[in-house]
Design goal:
heterodimer; A: MetI-like fold; 74% helix; 1% strand; globular; disordered N terminus; B: D-Maltodextrin-Binding Protein, domain 2; D-Maltodextrin-Binding Protein, domain 2; five-stranded mixed beta sheet; 11 strands
Amino acid sequence: MSSSNDTGVIPAQAAIQFQATGVAVEAKLDSRLRGSDVAGGGTRGGKKRRESAAGTQKRAVFGNKWLGFAFAVPQLLLIFTFFYWPASQAVYWAFTLQGPWGGGNEFVGLDNIRAIVTDPVYWDSVVRSLVFAALSTGISMGAALVLALLVDRELAGNKIYRSVLVWPYAIAAPALGLAFRFMLAPEAGVIAFVNHIWPGVWDPTINGNEALGAIIFAFAWKYVGYNFIFMLAALQGIPKSLLEAGAMDGARPLRRMIDIQIPLLTPTLFFLLVLNITDSFQDSFGIVDIMTGGGPARATNLMVYKIYFDGFKGLDYSGAAAQSIVLMLLVIGLTFIQFRYIERRVHYT
Amino acid sequence: MLHSSRVIAAAAAPVLGLVLGATGSYADPVKFDFWYGLSGDLSNVVQQMCSNFNKSQSDYQIVCTSQTNYDTNLQNTIAAYRANKQPTLTQIYDVGTATMLLSGAVQPVYQLMADNGYKIDWSNYIPGVKSYYASAKGDLWSMPFNSSTAVLYWNKDAFKKIGKDAAPKTWEELAEDAKALKAAGYDCPLATDITNNESWELLEQFSAIHNLPISTQNDGYDGLDAQVTFNKTKFVQMVTDLKSWYDQGLVVIKDAKQGESYAAAFAAGHCQMTLDSIGDHGTIGKTAPAGMQWGTAELPVYAGTERHNSIVGGASLWVLKGKTDAEYKGAAAFLNWIAQPDQALFWSTNTGYIPVTKTGFDFMTKSGFYQNPIYAGREVAVQSLSEGTPTPLTRGIRLAVMPQIRQELGNALQAIFAGQVSVQAGLDDAAQRSNADLAKAAAQYKGATLP
C-alpha cells in the first residue's frame, strides 16, 4: 500500500523537474505517469485506496472544459515563451547563416550541421561530455546511495546529516566552481600539499585529465545532496516489516540492503539516473566556465561550453544553434534509451 | 547640532538654486545611454567621469551602465541592436573592432563629430592608437578610450643581484638574464600565461614589434579573405624558445586558476619578470611590498630586428545607428569633452591607461605626472606605441574572429607546453582551425566590406 503510494509521488516530482529540463523528456514522462497510474489502479493497493475514498472524494472534473484550459494557460504561456519560442528560433538559426548583427539570414540547409559533424574537435567534445556524464552521475549516485543507506539505518547524528547533506545542491554552479577552484589550485589550494610531497603531480591548468577529473568531482559533489534526499525519502517509504522479516530470516544489514532495499529503490534510482544525466549535459556550464574555461587544450570543452563559446564569444550563432540541436537530440536519445532498456528492470510496485 | 544643520543649509542653498535655475530657464536635458565593459575600480572611475560631464553642462545627461566585462558588453550591445534598444555609445574591446566595422550598425565617429560642428585634429592622436580604429582612408570610426599596450615588467632588486641595472632589450639577452636569475636562486625568472586572451602579449604584440604578419591581406585590413600565417613566421621560433625555456624552468606559467596570476606573482616578488599590460601598472604598484624596486621596459625583440611600434590594447567608443539627432549631439559633446587634456590626465591618473593624444601626453608630461614615482614607467607604453612609423603590419588587426583565434592559439600553446604536440604541429593546427573560423565569418558578412 504505502510503497505504491510512494511510486506515485516520485514520478509526479519527476514531471515537475522535467518541465525545467526539456519538453521532449517531459512528454515522455507524462505518458509514463499515465501508465503508472493505470498500473497503480489495477493493483490491490490502488483498489483499496479507491474503495476507502469512495463517496467522500469523488474524482473532481471541471464542468466547463474551458475553465480547465484557462487554468493551464499561464503555464502554457511560460513554456511557450521560455522554451518553444527560443527552441524554434534555434532551429531556424541552425538552418540559416546568421550575421551577428541580424539581417542577411540566408538559408543554407544542412551546411551548419555538416560543418560540426565533420569537425574532429566537435566529436572530441561529445566524447568528453559522455565521459563527464557517466562518471559524474556514477560518482554522485553511488556516494548518495551509500550515505542514504547509512542515514536510513539511523546512525548517530542522522538527523543532522539529513538536513546538511542537501545543502550543496542549493549552491549556484559558478559559486561552487569558484570554491573548488580555490581548493584545487595547485599552488595555493587545500590540495597544494600533494605538490610539496610529489612536486608537479597535480596541475589541472596543464594536465587535461586532471582538469576533467576536477570538474567531474565538483559536479558530482553538487548532486550528491540532491540524490541523497530522494533516495532517503524512498528508503523511508519501504515498509519496516519487510526489513524485519529479512532480519528474522537471518539476513545481515548488507544482505538486506542488496536484496530488499536497493530493488525497492529502483524507481527512484531510475528517475535520478535520467535526471543526473540530463543535468550533466546542461548544468555543467557554470562549473566549466569558472574552473577551467574549457581548457587546458580543450580537455574540458564540454558540448554546452562549446555552444556558449562559439555562439557568444565567436559570434557564430548558426553554428552554436546547430550544436544545441545536436545536444538536444543527444539528450532525447539517451533518455529514450534509458526508458527503453533500463526501465524494463525497474519495478514500480 | 547647530553646526551640522548650518553645514547642511550651506550645502543645500547652491544645490537648490541650481535646481530652480535649471528648471526655470532650461528644458530637461537630453538623456542618452553609454554602455561599458569595465567593473570594480575602473567602473567607479567611469561613473565619476559621467557625473563630471553631467555637472559640466546642462543640455545633456549621459546615463552610464556597466555590463561587467568586454565580452558581455559586446553580446548585450548586439542583442540590444537586434531588438532596436541599443545605447547611443558603447565601449568595444580592441579585437571587436573588425566586427563593429563590418556590422553596418555604427555611425562613424569622424562623421558624427563633423556633423555636429566639432573640428578635431585627428593627427593629434598617437599613431599606434589611431591606426587600430581608423578606416583605410585614415578616418577614425570609433573614439580611442582606454588604451594600453604590453610592456616588460622587471624586478630591479633581483637584477642587481645578477649585476645588471637595465632590462633586457632582446630575447637572447632575456634568456641569459633568466638563466642568471635561476642560478642566483630565483624559481620563477619570467612569468607568463598562455590561455586564451593572454596570448595577446605573445602573438599580437610580438608580430607588430617585429613587423611580421599575423595573416595575409595585411592582418585583414585589405580584405575578408585573409588567412592566418602565424605558423610560418618567426613566431614559431618564439614559441619554440618559450617552450624550451619552460622546460628549463626559466619561464613559469602563472594563472589565477593555479592560485596566482602572473601580475600578482610579479607584484609579490615571486617572479622577477613578466609581460603584461601597462593597465596593470597601478595595481602592481599598490600591491608590491614596500621598498621593492621594479620598472617597466619595452618588450624585447630578437637581436638584429628593427623595432616597430607595439599595438594598442584596451577599448574604444562606438556610436550606434538608429538614435535621434539630439542624442547624437549629446554623444558628440561627450566625446569632445573626454578628448580634452585635463580629462586625459584625470583618466590616466585614476587608471593605468595611457593618454591617447599627443597633447594629452605633453600636458601630462609638463604637469610632472611621469616624474611622480607612483606613475613613473607608464611613459614606456607611449614610447612603445610610437616606435618608428606604423607599417601595414603594425596598424592593428582586422580579423572578425580574433577572439576565436586567440582561443585556438591558447589551446595549441597548452597542448605544446604539456608536450602533447610539437611546436610546429600545434601551431599548424591552430592556424588551420583559425582559417576555418575566418571562412565562416567571411560568409556571415557576405557583401560587407571594411571601410
